[in-house]
Design brief:
With 341 residues, the protein is of the alpha/beta class. It has 14 helices and eleven strands. The longest helix has 15 residues. The chain starts with a helix and ends in a 5-residue tail after the last helix.
């Protein structure tokens, strides 16, 4: 009865029955950098909150320290979320930035973490989020985060998955460290090896994704992140990856793609939304589509609410999952459609 009621509700919103049934299947909510809409990103506190919000997966961005320890940090820089510039003013490089790989884990433990801010102005990126420099937060290691999630899964009976990203692998090798090998060894130690394990491993670098599958022999689910043409994430040609030929190449090694929002919905013209054919072509190749990033406080101009954005991407575009800073709202949206808890 619940499914039938929600089907009628979806039809009243102009959603095709086949599209609704696809959405009501196994769609996922990925907590982007943990519960980053409510607590400083990638902290263990943000991870615990995302787990409590029933996110299906929790994302980890991974970089290395000077002593080769994987830590969870969105950037290769420290000066956008910590007081590294204040505590270690002499450690900046010629570009004025402070790099995680120039600090040992012991030194990173000394840093105080806060809400993301612009290092040039000191102002928060999202003004309404957790107040800057309040309370006490730290940069966690990837192993600490794995232990926390697995521990919470055991104590709560949930099966929350992980969604790690290997950041800037080519750059890390230039610095003398093979981040991918280190991360894969740690994942194997914690039982993340195959496609039946609750993990998606993601990367922007297509050459590295091929290396992970073909050379390093990883058998778990892989996702190719798709940036913009001139992205600094990697030298990958993202325009080519979005073509049918590029998607076919991805499908030979990966299980899904992670496109930016504009690569799925380009905007709205005369009250009509404009969609690309990316999702359609990806699905023909059996690739899942998990676009990024859904933020209640940074909405595209063509929608008025996060719920409307979820509706547009899940029900109209037909994506399989989303990265969101407000995973509680994403979970609530899917439950309103009748997806099982």
């Amino acid at each position: 009865m619940k499914m039938r009621t929600n089907l009628l509700s979806a039809l009243s919103l102009g959603v095709a029955a086949s599209n609704f049934l696809a959405v009501a299947g196994e769609k996922i909510i990925i907590a982007h950098r943990g519960a980053s809409g409510y607590l400083p990103e990638h902290t263990l506190e943000a991870v615990a909150m995302a787990h409590a919000m029933d996110a299906d997966y929790i994302e980890q961005d991974i970089v290395l320290t000077k002593d080769g320890v994987p830590v969870v940090l969105h950037d290769i820089h420290l000066d956008t979320v910590s007081d590294a510039a204040k505590r270690f003013p002499d450690r900046k490089r010629n570009d004025g930035r402070f790099y995680a790989i120039d600090f040992t884990l012991s030194e990173i433990r000394q840093l105080r973490v806060t809400e993301r801010f612009d290092p040039k102005t000191g102002q928060p990126v999202y003004e309404s989020r957790f107040p800057m420099w309040r309370s006490s937060f730290e940069i966690p290691t990837f192993e600490e985060e794995l232990q926390l999630i697995q521990g919470l899964n055991q104590s709560t009976g949930k099966e929350t998955g992980i969604y790690p990203e290997i950041k800037a692998p080519a750059w890390h090798r230039q610095q003398g460290q093979d981040i991918t090998r280190i991360v894969l060894e740690l994942l194997a130690r914690y039982g993340y090896r195959t496609k039946s394990d609750k993990i998606y491993l993601q990367c922007f670098d297509f050459e590295e994704l091929k290396r992970i599958r073909n050379q390093l022999g990883y058998r778990g689910k892989l996702v190719q992140l798709i940036g913009e043409k001139n992205s600094a994430e990697s030298p990958t040609d993202y325009n080519w990856l979005r073509t049918r030929e590029g998607l076919s190449a991805i499908a030979k090694v990966a299980d899904g793609i992670g496109p930016a929002l504009p690569q799925v919905v380009t905007g709205k013209v005369n009250a009509e939304f404009r969609f690309t054919d990316l999702v359609q072509h990806a699905h023909k190749l059996k690739l899942e589509v998990h676009p990024y990033t859904f933020r209640a406080d940074a909405l595209p101009e063509y929608v008025l609410s996060l719920e409307e954005l979820f509706h547009l991407f899940f029900l109209k575009a037909g994506v399989d999952g989303v990265f969101t800073d407000q995973s509680d709202q994403g979970v609530a949206f899917l439950r309103s459609l009748g997806q099982s808890d």
